[in-house]
Design a protein that fits this description.
The complex is a heterotrimer of chains A (154), B (408) and C (313). With 154 residues, chain A is of the alpha/beta class. Chain A is 21% helix and 29% strand. Chain A has one domain: NADH:ubiquinone oxidoreductase Nqo5 subunit (Beta Polymerase, domain 2), CATH 3.30.460.80. Chain B has 408 residues and is of the alpha+beta class. Chain B has three domains: 4-40, no CATH class; 48-363, Orthogonal Bundle (Cytochrome-c3 Hydrogenase, chain B); 380-408. Chain B has helices spanning 48-53, 57-65, 72-87, 93-121, 125-146, 169-192, 194-200, 208-213, 218-222, 230-233, 254-278, 328-333, 336-340, 348-354, 359-363, 379-392; strands at residues 7-12, 24-30, 33-40, 155-156, 159-160, 295-303, 306-314, 320-326. Chain B has a three-stranded antiparallel β-sheet, with no helix packed on it. In chain B, a hairpin with a 2-residue loop joins strand 6 (295-303) and strand 7. In chain B, helix 2 runs antiparallel to helix 3 (72-87), helix 4 (93-121) packs antiparallel against helix 11 (254-278) and helix 4 (93-121) runs antiparallel to helix 14. Chain C has one domain. Chain C has 313 residues and is mainly alpha-helical. Classes of the chains: A alpha/beta (154), B alpha+beta (408), C mainly alpha (313).
Chain lengths: 154, 408, 313
């Protein structure tokens, strides 16, 4: 059994609800699709018990009514677990900074660029948009369009 | 004695000679000691991720290449690998070797650049002048092999754009030999020069636990004893067919980071020799479709500064649904505050430089708007202002072609 | 001394004109050598003069909240003190323009004034970078002045005089005795690096940390005069070291004597340029530690040697 397959078996054994929702894309890539409610548990289990100590990034996606979130984790042997979950726009996700203190910057990126709401994020300056950027504009949302040239002068 | 009144707040950035790109460190000092550091990033946000969604895959390739000036090949390769995985393209072996060759040459040029910057930050300009002179050899080699000194544009969907002729091999080997000789000299210098050791040893400490906890990558992590390297752990391109050592060090300070980079240079020379020796014959690219089938992929790439991570989601059209880029500097900036704890102001430049920061890669977004602040000027406005300023002073810049003048 | 010769002495030789010309030439030698040692082309010979003239034509800015008289006068004080001290140093012969018993002490104090001017200029600038630079400059004074004083005291002890001209005359009368003072010569060179704020002791103006230190708010004419004062200080410092530690070739014709003097100063400037090519900048605490634990003991050792030698001869 390869590393990826044994990971699938371990995960399904701990979280029966994940049966059929863990896919192996190739030898070093595993995708895990979890509901928002069980996400913190699965994430903590991966990071603390299964050795996924490298936190790569969070990808945020505009999926219409939901924000799609992918948390990319990796293990020292190169195996990568991509944990996908969805969060309805306007609702909030729990921060992961309690597990990965360096992860806050990716969450701030989600807040600025996609308008996500993150619960429990320590205070700090915004990233990456400037301080005078309007709070309600999030450039990575599909319905956001850059203004025409010269429009800002009006 | 901690005394609030004696604390001096020093702004390092957004514009400061120690920083080659805008970012801001608000440093609180007591005497020469740093008591706290507040970091603000984002000054280089250029909207590349949003831009990628509005361009075709082929256009994106060139846009992504411009995420970073130094590791342009890294970002382009990381992106193209993700797209190829979605499209199910198997690229020719020769293309993989050429990609790897350019990648290693890029590491050489980036690490030599770092060595010079590090020298400059501690006031050792002689090292800067020497290592940048040597770096010219690689830059010129790039111009010969790819047509450009930076932004080489070697990648294309399904392979590479240019072949490297066997007649060019001896020249590459000659340059590698010369650089190896120079690198050995720098290693000796680092090990024996007293003031260098005084300025680098014990400075910017980052324990292995902190490096792992805060998500450090690349040479920064390896100098803290974290044995990880994407080239070995999750091999891409031709790395699974090549032999190399992952250099680690447990000094956990700036000196360790220098040792790791110098060691990696030596490994890169050996890798380049292996690549030239084993370079397979065959085509350099396969035909790639314009429309990429729906799907998603994550690609990891060990850039000179650490791990690049690219995520691409395709929706069946010729434009991606989402491109997400994580540059190594973003991961490494999280450890800066830890490294500066109880440090000296004098050590701040070298500690920041030791992660080999590249803030442009880190930020990526905006340019489109001037903002609501009335003092901010858009590019066009700035051009017009400049033209007017000179006209008022009797200089006629009308012969100079500027973008703003075409409509006027 | 007639009024005419006094004016000539003050304005032309060895006063203002000579010192400024030599200072700019010295800056060129330093920069060119530094560049060649770093495998660079380096500036053309007129670059220091061109920089100076360019700065004269630039806008003068005084920061808001600065103490205007101090801010304005600091560069003038620095330059005046440096020019004044050249009259007590013998150049091509064994006598200076205005020799008197004790002029060594006067020159040493005059040469502290530029550093104090840097401190005052930085302090009144109201910029954090300038303030930090000013404090570093004054911290450094305590580190290198004592070794410098002690190193210059040793040859004076042997010559039994507090006059630079007297020292030069004594060693001219006792050829080869200057070899006893070689340790002190080394100490004086290191201290001179600190005085001139050059690598490895350039913390007060460390570009990558505090931008330009004390000088950050200075511009135009005032900056030009500060830079000129530093150039002249390099010449005066080197002349002092040459007069005390390299007292040979003094009994020649005036023209030949001046040529030998120029060669000595250029040699010292060359050594300084070489030293600043070789090292990285030390942190201020490392600099102070180095001066007190290495340089100062060597200076005291020189005193000990000279006391023994004095008993022997």
């Amino acid at each position: 059994m390869s590393e990826a397959e044994s990971l699938v078996a371990q995960l399904v054994a701990t979280f029966p609800a994940l049966n059929g929702r863990v896919t192996v894309q190739r030898a070093k890539r595993v995708w895990i699709d979890v509901d928002r409610q069980v996400f913190p548990e699965v994430f903590r289990h991966l990071a603390k018990d299964l050795g996924f100590e490298v936190f790569c990034m969070i990808t945020g996606l505009d999926e219409g009514a939901d924000l799609g979130l992918i948390y990319h984790l990796a293990r020292n042997d190169g195996l990568m677990a991509n944990v996908k979950t969805r969060c309805p726009k306007g609702e909030s996700m729990e921060t992961i900074t309690s597990i990965f203190p360096g992860g806050g910057i990716y969450e701030r990126e989600l807040i600025d660029l996609l308008g996500a709401h993150i619960e429990g994020l320590p205070e700090g300056s915004r990233y990456p948009l400037p301080d005078n950027w309007p709070k309600d504009e999030h450039p990575l949302l599909k319905d956001w369009k850059p203004r025409e040239k010269g429009a800002q002068d009006a | 004695m901690p005394d609030k009144k004696r604390t001096v707040r020093v702004p390092i950035g957004p514009q400061h000679p120690a920083l080659k790109e805008p970012e801001s460190f608000m440093v609180d000092l007591q005497g020469e000691k740093i008591t706290s550091v507040a970091l603000r990033l984002g000054y280089n946000h250029r909207g590349i991720e949003k831009g990628c969604e509005e361009r075709t895959y082929m256009q994106d390739l060139y846009l992504v290449e411009r995420v970073c000036g130094i590791c342009s090949h890294s970002h382009a390769t990381a992106f193209v690998q993700a797209v190829e995985e979605i499209a199910g393209l198997e690229i020719p072996r020769r293309a993989k070797y050429i990609r790897t060759l350019i990648a290693e040459l890029e590491r050489v040029h980036s690490h030599l650049l770092w060595l010079g910057v590090a020298g400059h930050e501690i006031g050792f300009d002689t090292l800067l002048m020497y290592s940048w002179r040597d770096r010219e050899l690689v830059m010129d080699l790039f111009a010969e092999l790819t047509g450009n000194r930076v932004n080489y544009a070697m990648n294309t969907l399904g392979g590479v754009r240019r072949d490297i002729a066997a007649e060019q091999f001896p020249h590459i080997l000659k340059i590698v030999d010369a650089l190896e000789e120079r690198t050995k000299y720098y290693i000796e210098l680092a090990m024996t020069e007293e003031t260098l050791a005084q300025r680098l040893s014990g400075v910017g400490r980052l324990s292995k636990e902190d490096a792992v906890r805060l998500g450090a990558v690349g040479p920064t992590a390896r100098a803290s004893g974290a044995d990880r390297d994407t080239r070995r752990d999750d091999p891409y391109a031709a790395y699974d067919e090549l032999e190399f050592r992952v250099i680690t060090d447990d000094r956990c300070d700036v000196f360790g980071r220098a040792v790791v980079r110098l060691g990696e240079l030596m490994q890169s020379y050996s890798l380049i020799r292996q690549i030239l020796k084993q370079m397979p014959e065959g085509p350099i690219a396969v035909k790639a479709p314009l429309k990429i089938p729906a799907g998603e992929a994550v690609s990891r790439y060990e850039a000179p500064r650490g791990e690049d991570v690219h995520y691409v989601r395709a929706n069946g059209t010729d434009k991606p649904e989402r491109v997400k880029v994580r540059a190594p500097t973003l991961a490494n900036t999280q450890s800066i505050a830890k490294m500066l704890e109880d440090g000296y102001l004098a050590d701040l430049p070298i500690v920041v430089a030791a992660i080999d920061p590249c803030f442009s890669c880190t930020d990526r977004t905006i340019a489109v708007r001037g903002g609501r602040d009335s003092k901010t000027m858009g590019w066009e406005e700035l051009v017009q202002y400049g033209v007017r300023w000179y006209r008022e002073r009797g200089v006629d810049p009308s012969r100079i072609k500027v973008r703003g003048d075409e409509s006027a | 001394m007639t009024v005419g010769s006094a004016v000539l002495n003050i304005l032309v030789f060895p006063g203002f004109l000579f010192l400024v010309a030599f200072g700019l030439a010295g800056e060129f030698v330093d920069r060119k050598l530094y560049a060649r040692l770093q495998n660079r082309q380096g500036p053309p010979w007129y670059q220091p003069l061109a920089d100076f003239l360019k700065l004269l034509g630039k806008e003068n800015v005084i920061p808001e909240g600065a103490d205007r008289p101090t801010f304005r006068l600091a560069p003038v004080f620095a330059l005046a003190a440096v020019v004044a001290s050249i009259f007590y140093i013998p150049l091509g012969s064994t006598t200076s323009v205005l020799p008197f018993e004790g002029d060594l002490i006067v020159v040493l104090y005059l040469l502290v004034i530029p550093t104090v001017a840097f401190f005052l200029g930085g302090w009144t600038s109201r910029s954090v970078f300038a303030t930090i630079g000013a404090f570093r400059a004054i911290t450094q004074v305590f580190a290198y002045e004592i070794p410098l004083f002690v190193a210059l005291l040793a040859p004076a002890l042997l010559a039994n005089t507090w006059s630079i001209s007297g020292i030069a005359a004594y060693y001219a009368g006792h050829p080869w005795l200057w070899l006893v003072n070689l340790l002190g010569f080394g100490v004086a060179l290191v201290s001179l690096l600190g005085k001139l704020e050059k690598v490895p002791f350039d913390t007060p103006e460390a570009e990558t940390e505090i931008v330009a230190g004390s000088f950050i708010e200075y511009s135009g004419r005032r900056l030009a005069f500060f830079r000129l004062a530093i150039d002249c200080e390099a010449i005066v410092g080197a002349s002092l070291v040459a007069a005390v530690f390299l007292p040979f070739g003094l009994g020649l014709t005036p023209v030949l004597g001046i040529l030998v003097y120029v060669a000595k100063v250029l040699l010292i400037l060359g050594i300084l340029a070489l030293l600043r090519t070789l090292f990285a900048r030390l942190r201020i605490d490392q600099m102070v530690h180095f001066c007190w634990s290495v340089v100062a003991p060597i200076a005291f050792l020189q005193i000990l040697i000279n006391l023994v030698v004095r008993e022997l001869i």
